[in-house]
Amino acid sequence: MTQGQGPILRVENICKMLGGKKILNSVSLSLNKGELKVLIGPSGAGKSTLLQCINFLIPPDRGQVWLEGTEVQHHRKRDLYALRQQIGMIFQDFNLFDHLNALENVSIALRKVKKMGRSAARERALAQLEQVGLGDKITLYPAELSGGQKQRVSIARALAMDPKIMLLDEPTSALDPELIGEVLSVIRDLARGGMTMILATHQIGFARTLADEVLFMEDGRIIEQGPPAELLAPNARTRSRDFCSKLDELYEENL
Amino acid sequence: MDTAFYTDLLIPALNRGLIMSIKLIIPSGILGLMLGIVVGTLRTFGHPVLRKAANGYTAVFRGTPLVVQLFMLYFGLPNLGIYLDAYSAAVVGFILCSSAYHSEYIRGGLLSIKHGQVLAAQSMGFSTFKTMCHIIVPQAVRRALPGCGNEIIYLIKYSSLAYIITCIELTGEGKIIATRYFRFTEVFMVIGCYYLVLVTFVTAGLHKLEEKLQIPGFGTIG
Known about the structure:
The structure holds two protein chains of two kinds.
Chain A lengths: L8 E10 L2 E11 L4 E5 L6 H8 L7 E6 L2 E2 L5 H10 E4 L11 H11 L5 H14 L15 H13 L5 E5 L7 H16 L3 E5 L3 H7 L2 E6 L2 E6 L1 H4 L7 H16 L1
Parallel strand pairs in A: 3-8, 3-9, 6-7, 7-8
Antiparallel strand pairs in A: 1-2, 1-4, 4-5, 9-10
Helix pairs in contact in A: 3-4, 3-5, 4-5, 5-6
Chain B lengths: L2 H43 L2 H16 L2 H11 L9 H26 L4 H8 L4 H31 L11 H12 L2 H29 L10
Helix pairs in contact in B: 1-2, 1-4, 1-6, 1-7, 2-4, 3-4, 4-6, 5-6, 6-8, 7-8
């Protein structure tokens, strides 16, 4: 490894104002290869904005991003497109391409961005869809898939690009409760397979078992961070712990 | 009934005119739609300067009568040293005018596509141009097709204005005969039937196209 043991992703002092409001206030984080960091916090804390600043879908006002030790020059279009190919992103509401079936959803970026041939792209897409358990659904269009299936297609679509990092923005928040499991199990497999990930989620139980570190965000800052065993321990006197017990209560009420 | 008037005079003239009309409509329809897609996309997602230019273009061509546009192209441009024959001037005028209208339907289609798909495409390294070409426009066109079809049908009928700048098509041929023999009612009723048949065929064709482009989740055709 040429980069030695340095972090694969380093984000420093990201600031972002949107509509006169400070959404991100000097946020920094770093991610080592194979790590899973979980981002929790109330709605409006800036979790989505942070994730979208990392691949410059939202250009930050200030701050730097380093990928494998190289600072990203996001003003250079070519660098920007190259960066984005290496960072897979999963969205809360899937964002599948509605005019393409599952197979084409996965293969289109391989063909148009990676310039793969039609049949090679098809094979790769097929393998990727089989990996997320959708080998029998490849000809279906987004409108014909359930929410959980859509999210699994979107994961396959991101994985097909061979990303070094995955950013998952509340991947189960738009799903019916009985469909959450199938998506979480795909994410669990990814984590076990050593994929480097940042996961924004409200699934605290899931976060607790898999996360290497929990980052708690509020008002545009990371206010607490640490291993879940410390931060979320039953007797821990942390903001994260408070937040999670509230979520737990809410969840129990719903059950 | 004076059948010779129809069989020897009117029908052959109208058939001649029909061919000219079709020669006007096909390139105007196809190129007008293509230019409309470009203009509509620029108006929605273009660079601010291009967006302004495209909006200005649409304002001018939707805001002035087509006759005026045709006169400018045919009689006005020679003042700038640009000479278009009547046919070319008519086709250019129709393309420019219909694309301005198409652009509005396309814009509506584009605005109906969820922005998340733009983000998803860009998150995989699609450039803005590729996002438009491969992801957004193919969906927007499907959404805009009924409206664009409407514009194409309308084009068929306003192609009759070509005769005003001496490009004698269906209406022009008919008008010459009607004036010479002073038989306006019959002649224009027959012309009306020609257009009706033409529009019926095109409507069926557009319906076929909509069926061919049909995708689950994009509305259904009965």
